[in-house]
Structure formats: structure tokens, C-alpha cells
Write a structure and sequence with these properties.
This protein is mostly helical and 140 residues long. Among the domains are: 31 residues; 43 residues. The protein contains six helices and two strands, in the order H-H-H-H-H-E-E-H. Strands 1-2 form a two-stranded antiparallel sheet. Strand 1 and strand 2 form a beta hairpin.
């Protein structure tokens, strides 16, 4: 025998078949022990509920529908935005109180949208601040 094969046979896990086996069913039982000593008591596997409540299932489906509807709305808005940009690429003349300038219609629409959005936020904050309940002196 070569040196490598002798070293292989000298390894203790090869000499003892019980330590080489990967599961209890693969192990060779020791003739000196009884089967009750060898096999641990089997416990049934623990499993969660296999059925889902009807209300939970409906809520899960409703969440999925809302998610898909939101995704479809975002895609539709992006398509409309891309169409708006592609149709309005021409340059137009803008007349100011003093002078005039030329700009792409896309940039004018975008600037008007952002300006309107910011003015809407400012108006909302202003009304909320003015109509907020202020604690006054207690009335009797």
C-alpha cells in the first residue's frame, strides 16, 4: 500500500462506521445495545396553521390590487409625461413686461408646473397657520 492509502485507513472516522454515517437511518446499530438505547423518541414535526383566514386572505389580495393599481397609475403618468414632452419640443417666444425671450415649450410647462406646486404648498401652510386653534384664556 502507498503512504496515502495507509494514512487514510488510520483515520478514526473510517474505522468507526457509526461516526461516518450522516443520519440515524444510515448508522449501523451496535449489537451490544438495545434498540431503545439507540433510537431517541421521535417527536412529530411542528407546523403552523395550513389554512389562512378568509379576512386575512382578502386583505392580502386587496393590498396586492392596490400595489398593482398604483404601479399602473405611475406607468400611465410617465407615458403621458413622455408624450407631453415629445409633442411640445418646439421653441416659442415669451413676452415679458419688459422685453421678450425664446424658450422651449417643455421647459415653460415644467417651470409653470413646479411654480404652481410650490405656490400650492405655500398656500396650504399659510391657511393651516392662520386657522390653527390657539389656546386662549379659560372661559367660565
Amino acid at each position: 500500500m502507498t503512504g496515502a492509502s495507509v494514512a487514510f485507513l488510520d483515520r478514526p472516522e473510517i474505522e468507526d462506521n457509526r461516526s461516518v454515517a450522516t443520519s440515524d437511518s444510515d448508522r449501523i446499530p451496535d449489537p451490544g445495545r438495545s434498540s431503545s438505547e439507540h433510537d431517541p423518541p421521535a417527536s412529530p414535526p411542528v407546523r403552523g396553521p395550513t389554512t389562512e383566514a378568509t379576512g386575512e386572505r382578502l386583505l392580502r389580495h386587496a393590498r396586492h390590487i392596490r400595489l398593482y393599481t398604483s404601479a399602473a397609475a405611475v406607468v400611465a403618468l410617465l407615458v403621458v409625461l413622455i408624450l407631453l414632452i415629445s409633442v411640445n419640443v418646439r421653441t416659442v417666444k415669451i413676452d415679458w413686461v419688459v422685453g421678450s425671450t425664446r424658450a422651449s415649450l417643455v421647459w415653460i410647462v415644467l417651470a409653470a408646473t413646479v411654480l404652481g406646486w410650490l405656490l400650492g404648498i405655500a398656500t396650504s401652510v399659510s391657511f393651516r397657520h392662520r386657522t390653527r386653534h390657539r389656546p386662549g384664556p379659560p372661559t367660565r
